C-alpha cells in the first residue's frame, strides 16, 4: 500500500506541474452586445476574480445582453459600456434609457475620491430649468432636454455663466419658482456636466453620445503600447506585462502531452499490477483466516477415498537383508535404491516389500511406507494396507495391518 500511495503522490505532482499552468490563464471575454473585456476589467461569473483589478467589475445585462458598469456614487441603474480603449485607458458609458441629463441631475458622475477608480477630465457648470410650454425666449446655447420634458413642461439646460448673463439682461427674468400665471421657468438645479457631454450638446442637441471615464491605476498604457497584456501574477501581488502569445510558462504543450502519455500509460499499468497484487494478498489472508468447515458435512457432500500409510509393526514385519562385503543381491542388476538414488554399500540394511519383492534402503522405505501404502516402484499396495474414507473413524492416524 505504501508503494501505491507513493505512485499517486507522484501522479498528482505530475499533473500539477505539467497540466496546470504556472500562471493562471485569463482569456478575453465579452457580452454579446458589448466590447472585449480584459484586464483590468473582468466580467462577473464569466471570469475569475484574479483576472480583474479591484473596482473594475463589469456585468452582462440579462435582458439587453449589453455590458454594464455600476458606479458606487450613482443612484440610478447601471451604465451601458459602449467602448473601452485600453491604450488611452478610457471607456465610454451611457444611460440605458438614453437620458444622460437625468444622470447629471442625480450627480452620478461626481468624483468621490474613495468610491470609484474612474475620473472625468473636466466639467462645466450647467443650470437646468423647468419651464411652461409658453416660455420660448432662451439663449442659443440653451438645449431642450426632451427625455425630461412632457406635455405640461419643458426642461432646458444652459451653461450657468450664460444663464446668469441672460438673467441679468432680460426683463422680466425667470422667477426662481414656477409662476402662477404667464410664461415662467424655475431653476431645477445647477450641476456639473462632463466637458465631453457639453460639447456633444452643442453638436447633437440632447442626443449625447456618452461620457468618457478614464483611469490611472493600474497603469498598463506602456504594456499596451508594445503589444503585450497586463495582468496580475499568481499570488495577485503585482502587475506583470506578459506576451499574449505565451500564456503559460514551462514546456511547450506538445512536450507536456508527450510526457503525460509516456508516464501515464506505464503508471496505469503499474496501478493495475499493484491492484492485482493487493487483491491477491487480501484473498490469501481471507482464506487463511476462514474457519474450517465441519468434516462430517464436507465428507457427506463430496465422498473421497484417502490412502493411509502403514503402521510401524506392519513395516517392521517386512523382511530385512544385511549386505555383506560382496554386496550380493537377489537381483544383481538392481544396485541403486529407487528412493534416494544411492548405490547399495556393504553392511547396509535393505528391506523387501513382500508383494512385489522390490527392495530399498530400510531407512528410506520405512519413511516412505509411513506416508504411502504402495511400493515406490510398481505402486502396488501391499497386503494389509488400509483405505480410509470420510465415513471411517478419524480417531487413529494409521490402520494396523496384519503381518504377511
Automatic annotation (TrEMBL):
<feature type="compositionally biased region" description="Low complexity">
    <location>
        <begin position="390"/>
        <end position="404"/>
    </location>
</feature>
<feature type="region of interest" description="Disordered">
    <location>
        <begin position="384"/>
        <end position="404"/>
    </location>
</feature>
<dbReference type="Pfam" id="PF13639">
    <property type="entry name" value="zf-RING_2"/>
</dbReference>
<dbReference type="InterPro" id="IPR013083">
    <property type="entry name" value="Znf_RING/FYVE/PHD"/>
</dbReference>
<dbReference type="InterPro" id="IPR025287">
    <property type="entry name" value="WAK_GUB"/>
</dbReference>
<comment type="similarity">
    <text>Belongs to the RING-type zinc finger family. ATL subfamily.</text>
</comment>
<keyword id="KW-0472">Membrane</keyword>
<feature type="transmembrane region" description="Helical">
    <location>
        <begin position="257"/>
        <end position="280"/>
    </location>
</feature>
<feature type="domain" description="RING-type">
    <location>
        <begin position="337"/>
        <end position="379"/>
    </location>
</feature>
<protein>
    <recommendedName>
        <fullName>RING-type E3 ubiquitin transferase</fullName>
        <ecNumber>2.3.2.27</ecNumber>
    </recommendedName>
</protein>
<comment type="pathway">
    <text>Protein modification; protein ubiquitination.</text>
</comment>
<keyword id="KW-0863">Zinc-finger</keyword>
<dbReference type="GO" id="GO:0061630">
    <property type="term" value="F:ubiquitin protein ligase activity"/>
</dbReference>
<keyword id="KW-0862">Zinc</keyword>
<dbReference type="GO" id="GO:0008270">
    <property type="term" value="F:zinc ion binding"/>
</dbReference>
<dbReference type="GO" id="GO:0030247">
    <property type="term" value="F:polysaccharide binding"/>
</dbReference>
<dbReference type="InterPro" id="IPR046948">
    <property type="entry name" value="ATL20-22-like"/>
</dbReference>
<dbReference type="GO" id="GO:0016020">
    <property type="term" value="C:membrane"/>
</dbReference>
<keyword id="KW-1133">Transmembrane helix</keyword>
<feature type="signal peptide">
    <location>
        <begin position="1"/>
        <end position="24"/>
    </location>
</feature>
<keyword id="KW-0479">Metal-binding</keyword>
<keyword id="KW-0812">Transmembrane</keyword>
<keyword id="KW-0732">Signal</keyword>
<keyword id="KW-0808">Transferase</keyword>
<keyword id="KW-0833">Ubl conjugation pathway</keyword>
<dbReference type="InterPro" id="IPR001841">
    <property type="entry name" value="Znf_RING"/>
</dbReference>
<dbReference type="Pfam" id="PF13947">
    <property type="entry name" value="GUB_WAK_bind"/>
</dbReference>
Amino acid at each position: 500500500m505504501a508503494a501505491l500511495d507513493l505512485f499517486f503522490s507522484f501522479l498528482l505532482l505530475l499533473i500539477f506541474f505539467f497540466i496546470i499552468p504556472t500562471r493562471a490563464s485569463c482569456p478575453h471575454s465579452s457580452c454579446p452586445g458589448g466590447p472585449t473585456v480584459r484586464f483590468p476589467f473582468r466580467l462577473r461569473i464569466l471570469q475569475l476574480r484574479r483576472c480583474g483589478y479591484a473596482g473594475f467589475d463589469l456585468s452582462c445585462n440579462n435582458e439587453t445582453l449589453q455590458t454594464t458598469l455600476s458606479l458606487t456614487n450613482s443612484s440610478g441603474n447601471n451604465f451601458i459600456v459602449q467602448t473601452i480603449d485600453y491604450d488611452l485607458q478610457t471607456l465610454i458609458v451611457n444611460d440605458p434609457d438614453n437620458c444622460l441629463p437625468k444622470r447629471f441631475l442625480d450627480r452620478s458622475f461626481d468624483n468621490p475620491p474613495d468610491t470609484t477608480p474612474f475620473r472625468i477630465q473636466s466639467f462645466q457648470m450647467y443650470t437646468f430649468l423647468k419651464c411652461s410650454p409658453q416660455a420660448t425666449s432662451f439663449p442659443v446655447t440653451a438645449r431642450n432636454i426632451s427625455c425630461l420634458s412632457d406635455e405640461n413642461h419643458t426642461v432646458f439646460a444652459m451653461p450657468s455663466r450664460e444663464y446668469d448673463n441672460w438673467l441679468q439682461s432680460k426683463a422680466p427674468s425667470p422667477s426662481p419658482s414656477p409662476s402662477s400665471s404667464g410664461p415662467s421657468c424655475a431653476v431645477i438645479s445647477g450641476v456639473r456636466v462632463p466637458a465631453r457631454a457639453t460639447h456633444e450638446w452643442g453638436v447633437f442637441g440632447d442626443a449625447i453620445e456618452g461620457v468618457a471615464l478614464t483611469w490611472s491605476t493600474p497603469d498598463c498604457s506602456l504594456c499596451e503600447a508594445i503589444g503585450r497584456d497586463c495582468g496580475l501574477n499568481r499570488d495577485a501581488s503585482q502587475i506583470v506585462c506578459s506576451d499574449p502569445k505565451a500564456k503559460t510558462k514551462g514546456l511547450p504543450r506538445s512536450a507536456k502531452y508527450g510526457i503525460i502519455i509516456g508516464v501515464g500509460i506505464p503508471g496505469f499499468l503499474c496501478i493495475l499490477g499493484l491492484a492485482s497484487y493487493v487483491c491477491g494478498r487480501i484473498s490469501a489472508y481471507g482464506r487463511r483466516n476462514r474457519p474450517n468447515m465441519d468434516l462430517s458435512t464436507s465428507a457427506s457432500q463430496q465422498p473421497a477415498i484417502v490412502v493411509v500409510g502403514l503402521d510401524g509393526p506392519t513395516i517392521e514385519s517386512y523382511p530385512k537383508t544385511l549386505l555383506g562385503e560382496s554386496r550380493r543381491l537377489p537381483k544383481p542388476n538392481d544396485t541403486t535404491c529407487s528412493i534416494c538414488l544411492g548405490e547399495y554399500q556393504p553392511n547396509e540394511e535393505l528391506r523387501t516389500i513382500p508383494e512385489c519383492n522390490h527392495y530399498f534402503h530400510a531407512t528410506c522405505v520405512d519413511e516412505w511406507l509411513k506416508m504411502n501404502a504402495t511400493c515406490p516402484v510398481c505402486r502396488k499396495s501391499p497386503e494389509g494396507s488400509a483405505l480410509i474414507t470420510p465415513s471411517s473413524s478419524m480417531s487413529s492416524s494409521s490402520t494396523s495391518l496384519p503381518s504377511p
